[in-house]
Amino acid sequence: MKKNLKEKQKRGMMRDWILLGMILIIAIVLLSIFPDRKEPVINTLWDYFMEMVLILPAVMILLGLFAVWVSKETVVKYLGKASGIKGIILAIILGALPTGPLYIAFPMAAALLKKGAKISNIIVFLSAWTCIKIPQEMVELQFLGPQFMLLRLSLTIIFVIIMAVFIEKMIEWSEDRVATMAS
Amino acid sequence: MNVTAVIINIIAVAGLLIAFAKDKDKAIKSLKMAGKSFIRMLPMVFVIIIIIGLLLGFVPPDQISRFVGERSGITGILLVGVVGAILHIPALLSFPLAASLLEEGASVSAVAAFITTLTMIGTITLPLEIKELGKKMAILRNGISFVIAIIIALIMGAIL
User: Fewer CB within 10 A of the end CB, N or C, for chain B?
Assistant: First the structure.
């Protein structure tokens, strides 16, 4: 299983480098056909490159620190028994901590489900994992400004909670129906 | 260098110092992980930067605003929402791309829809999500996420 994952990552990397090669060729061809565009394009490239270089290494270091210090087991342990508002807040915080890529969140969510955690908490946890990640918010702040980032963050939190409760009710309702039909 | 970048770097350095003081082995392990994910992300970083460069250099702003600007209305927002849901680029890199689109005349709603569907919805990870959590939960989560992404986008467009 683990070997499989590594193979997949390797293939993904190869694909990214090939994509880069292709884009680079397209860019070079376009710029040699339209040499007057060279200056604005290269200026933009440089500006964005500098902004990324200033911020990405720091973001990666934070990701690494959290991934090593906050273990999967800790997250599952705390979230498994939390409920109510406390459960939702905990799900947001634990989901937002930069502890790894999405594909490790699903097995964690499945483990939580088996442990009897509330469905709404699991949905909030998964959604926080994908779209409220702390380093992600930092990069959003950098490129889109505080107004945009804060507004989108608060709206996302509100709607994710509504969605989570709704999905929980839907699933409970359909399970109840199955149960009554069976009895 | 802007304030955000300075603050993030200070936090990272502080975190690293605390980590080394607490447990040197673990700290080195995190650094190695950070390095690996940085290298893994590098080609996509360049791809996105070049796309932004070409976008700003070659596509006139009125073209961009025609498709994803104020004038494109709800159709434009839905369109970028779908593109965001299908595309599979690291979320971290969607922000510079979004910023460049804004600069070129895209509407706040369209950009918000793009980022939100891109991060919330994973078409590539959907099979794994179904396997781990069941069809019902996975499809409900992704489907409703799309709807709320559009609602969030519309509210943001109205406020900002």
Answer: N
* Token pair recorded at residue B17: 């110092």
pLDDT in tens, A152-171: 999 999 999 999 999 999 98
Complex ipTM: 0.86
Q: How many separate domains does chain A show?
A: 1
User: Mean pLDDT of all residues in chain B?
Assistant: 89
Q: What is d(CA B81, CA B114) in angstroms, rounded to the nearest whole number? A: 5
Question: Is residue A101 included in any domain, yes or no?
Answer: yes
The whole domain housing A113 covers: 71-182
Using left for φ > 0, alpha for ψ between -120 and 50, and beta otherwise, residue A34 falls in: beta
- Residue of B33, B150, B52 lying closest to B101 (CA atoms): B52
For residue A84, is it within any domain? yes
Q: Along chain B (160 residues), what's the average pLDDT of each consecutive run of 10 residues?
A: 82 93 92 89 88 86 80 87 87 90 90 93 87 91 95 94
Cβ–Cβ below 8 Å for B43 and A16: yes
- Smallest Cβ–Cβ distance between A30 and the set B12, B56, B58 belongs to B58
- Taking CB atoms and an 8 Å cutoff, what residues of chain A touch B116? 131, 152, 156
- Specify if A142 maps to a domain: yes
Closest CB to A136: pick one of B38, B92, B141.
B92
Residues 17-46 of chain B whose Cβ lies under 8 A from any Cβ of chain A: 19, 26-27, 29-35, 37-38, 40-41, 43-46
Give the orientation angle of helix B91-103 with respect to helix A38-69, to 10 degrees.
150
Which residue among B44, B96, B144 places its CB closest to the CB of A16? B44
- What is the DSSP code string of B2-18? -HHHHHHHHHHHHHHHH
Position A102 in a domain: yes
